[in-house]
């Protein structure tokens, strides 16, 4: 979560030498608009190594941002470009990682190493490029920010001051949805109210605090109109935030007020049901009179002061699998922080007990938490063990009732090596882990890749196409590429190189499926892969689907790493809308990942009994962030994929990286079946617009 701090100014001029100051950016969280591939992440530009780099996809604009962790006095910025540099770029600053101000601009960037003298203060610094000097993307060996830590205004803590504090509410729908469920830190429990207005939920922070932010994670029954209020005594309330256009999903709000009590006061429901919150989080800054709450603007360490110690550390195992079913499933894959890769014991000699996997933390550490994300080949009986030398092992956790999926274990042990030692398998296969994370203090940790920022609040339009071209013209080639060839999943059509995708002159894109004279089928498929990719946001399209037996129109997202060699379903797939002609009154939203895909994908239909979605336009959307996806049709939220639920019941969440947009109108396939004597051709899928907000 971005820190919620006051806006600041930064003045920049070019200068041949760096001004004095400490290096503030090295090893700090970094994010970027895109990455050329997995080997050139944003974090590589702040790792202190001139042999690793960040590089973007081949389009303008692009950006690289670093979070300094707290407000600092900034004295200089150094950009060490790779050959693919920016001719035109800006240095931008932001108080919250969302709203940016341009404070330096050039159209004559020379590449090489550029030193910028800076005089200002702030928490976030961003390089924003608008014109590449080559046909490639932009690429930076190192992006360095220098200055003095702790300057300027203190910010807003990212610690949830409401966590496990006493909570009360105006009502509860039933005994399973109490007020306390909204402050328990779990995204699988919730408070819900009676179905009437007004309703409220309040939390007692225990002492007076300076309140600077709140985050509301709504269930589908959200508030359209509500207030955030603070109080010294729980009786007299002051309103510090008010809206009549609440969007639901997850709302991150900047506030300014002081009080011991904080409440959400709902005055207008968005549905016929009550109000329902998965989580109500409160953030505090310096200036409070109590002894609990925020940390005055610094980014707190992970829970318990621990850090991830196991990322990219040397790993060994009893055996590992390497064949067509699980290629290169070596032990390192459990520690690479890629949720789509895994370790598995060998199918030749590893489907036996015991089986184990171990990691070398590089130095002695105090281990306090272990997180295991199991493949279906999990252990029902296992131990977590530590060792000083990798030879003699001491159990620090033991179970005979392992449940698989995601297990978060609280442990207490010391050692340089940590091992999962399985003694009973859950089925006839071996052992397999998508992720094996070790947390604690000490060791020799490597900074893991920076996590992408969640969407802003409010969100802003970042990409769109309204398809206003002349009749017969093709889609804008600066936004879309044709994707010709045969379809997958048993589809019967051949996608053409533009013959079946064109404007109708009335503001719509036409994707036409045809039965040709020779009996074959043609259609169209377009994507934004080489033009626009994004992580998180609100994505919507207004579409009139085709509708006859054997047709399969879709609006969906595919992981951008698919274009650089990551196979499906490891890249991840987000189906915002699919329609099959044989079921006219339903559309479908589904997630696909290595552990759940195809017919086992995780999703839900949206059905209006007796209707035909092909008879009119409808708006299909997803709200996507690091914790959930909520799918909607015409503004009606009907399915939420909660990250915690997915990890606990399906498998890894593989959606924290860039995706691109696809529109297609398939003919035939495993799901809709083939056209028959009742099918009518040609069939047109009409798209009024596609919008992305972040």
Automatic annotation (TrEMBL):
The keyword Iron does not apply. Residues 1-19 form the signal peptide. Residues 11-148, 149-285, 298-441 form the F5/8 type C domain. The keyword Signal applies. Residues 29-51, 167-186, 443-490 are annotated as: Disordered. Residues 446-456 have a biased composition (Pro residues). InterPro entries: Beta-glucanase-like (IPR000757), ConA-like_dom_sf (IPR013320), FA58C (IPR000421), Galactose-bd-like_sf (IPR008979), Glycosyl_Hydrlase_16 (IPR050546). CDD domains: GH16_laminarinase_like. Transmembrane segments: none annotated. Pfam families: F5_F8_type_C (PF00754), Glyco_hydro_16 (PF00722). Residues 447-694 form the GH16 domain. Keywords: Signal. Belongs to the glycosyl hydrolase 16 family. This is Discoidin domain-containing protein. It comes from Actinacidiphila acidipaludis. The lineage of its organism: Bacteria, Bacillati, Actinomycetota, Actinomycetes, Kitasatosporales.
């Amino acid at each position: 979560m971005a820190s919620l701090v006051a806006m600041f100014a930064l003045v920049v001029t070019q200068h041949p030498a760096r001004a004095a100051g400490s290096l503030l950016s090295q090893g700090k969280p970094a994010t970027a608009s895109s990455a050329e591939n997995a080997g050139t992440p944003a974090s590589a530009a702040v790792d202190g190594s001139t042999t690793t780099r960040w590089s973007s996809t081949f389009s303008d604009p692009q950006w690289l941002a670093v979070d300094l962790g707290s407000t600092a006095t900034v004295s200089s910025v150094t950009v060490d470009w790779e050959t693919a540099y920016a001719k035109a770029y800006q240095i931008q600053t932001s108080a919250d990682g969302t709203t940016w101000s341009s404070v330096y601009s050039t159209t004559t960037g020379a590449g090489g190493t550029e030193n910028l003298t800076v005089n200002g203060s702030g928490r976030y610094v961003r390089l924003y490029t608008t014109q590449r000097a080559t046909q490639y993307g932009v690429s930076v060996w190192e992006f360095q920010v220098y200055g003095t830590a702790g300057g300027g205004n203190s910010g807003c803590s990212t610690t949830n001051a409401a966590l496990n504090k006493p909570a009360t509410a105006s009502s509860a729908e039933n005994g399973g949805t109490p007020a306390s469920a909204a402050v328990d830190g779990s995204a699988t429990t919730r408070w819900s109210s009676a179905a009437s207005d007004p309703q409220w939920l309040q939390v007692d922070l225990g002492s007076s605090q300076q309140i600077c932010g709140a985050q509301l994670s709504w269930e589908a029954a959200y508030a359209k109109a509500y207030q955030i209020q603070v109080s010294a005594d729980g009786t007299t309330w002051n309103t510090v935030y008010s809206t009549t256009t609440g969007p639901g999903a997850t709302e991150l709000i900047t506030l300014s007020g002081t009080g011991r009590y904080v409440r959400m006061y709902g005055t207008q429901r968005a549905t016929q049901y009550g109000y329902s919150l998965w989580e109500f989080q409160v953030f505090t800054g310096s200036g409070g009179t109590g002894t609990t709450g925020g940390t005055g603007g610094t980014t707190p360490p992970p829970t318990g002061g621990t850090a991830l110690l196991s990322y990219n550390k040397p790993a060994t195992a009893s055996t590992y699998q390497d064949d067509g079913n699980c290629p290169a499933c070596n032990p390192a894959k459990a520690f690479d922080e890629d949720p789509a890769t895994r370790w598995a014991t060998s199918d030749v000699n590893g489907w036996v007990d015991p089986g184990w996997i171990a990691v070398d933390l590089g130095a002695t550490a105090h281990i306090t938490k272990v997180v295991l994300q199991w493949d279906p080949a999990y252990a029902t009986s296992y131990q977590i063990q530590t060792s000083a030398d990798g030879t003699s092992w001491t159990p620090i956790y033991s179970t005979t009732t392992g449940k698989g999926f995601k297990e978060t274990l609280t442990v207490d042990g010391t050692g340089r090596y940590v091992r999962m030692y399985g003694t009973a398998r859950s089925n006839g296969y071996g052992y397999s882990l998508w992720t094996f994370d070790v947390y604690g203090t000490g060791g020799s940790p490597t900074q893991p890749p920076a996590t992408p920022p969640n969407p802003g609040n409010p969100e802003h339009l970042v990409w769109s196409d309204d398809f206003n071209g002349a009749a017969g013209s093709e889609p804008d080639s600066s936004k879309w590429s044709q994707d010709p060839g045969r379809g997958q999943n048993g589809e019967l059509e051949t996608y053409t190189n533009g013959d079946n995708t064109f404007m109708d002159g009335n503001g719509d894109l036409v994707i036409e499926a045809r039965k040709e004279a020779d009996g074959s089928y043609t259609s169209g498929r377009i994507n934004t892969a080489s033009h626009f990719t994004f992580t998180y946001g609100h994505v919507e399209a207004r579409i009139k689907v085709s509708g006859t037996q054997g047709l399969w129109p879709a609006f969906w997202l595919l992981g951008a790493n698919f274009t650089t060699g990551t196979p499906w379903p490891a890249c991840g797939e987000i189906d915002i809308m699919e329609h099959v002609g044989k079921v006219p009154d339903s559309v479908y939203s589904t997630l696909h990942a290595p552990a759940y895909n195809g017919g086992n994908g995780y999703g839900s239909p949206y059905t209006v009994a007796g209707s035909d979605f092909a008879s009119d336009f409808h708006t299909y959307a997803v709200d996507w962030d690091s914790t959930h996806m909520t799918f909607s049709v015409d503004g009606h939220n009907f399915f939420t994929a909660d990250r915690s639920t997915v990890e606990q019941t399906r498998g890894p969440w593989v959606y924290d990286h860039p995706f691109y947009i696809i529109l297609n109108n398939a003919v035939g396939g495993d799901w809709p079946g083939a056209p028959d004597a009742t099918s009518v051709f040609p069939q047109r899928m009409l798209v009024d617009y596609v919008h992305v907000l972040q």
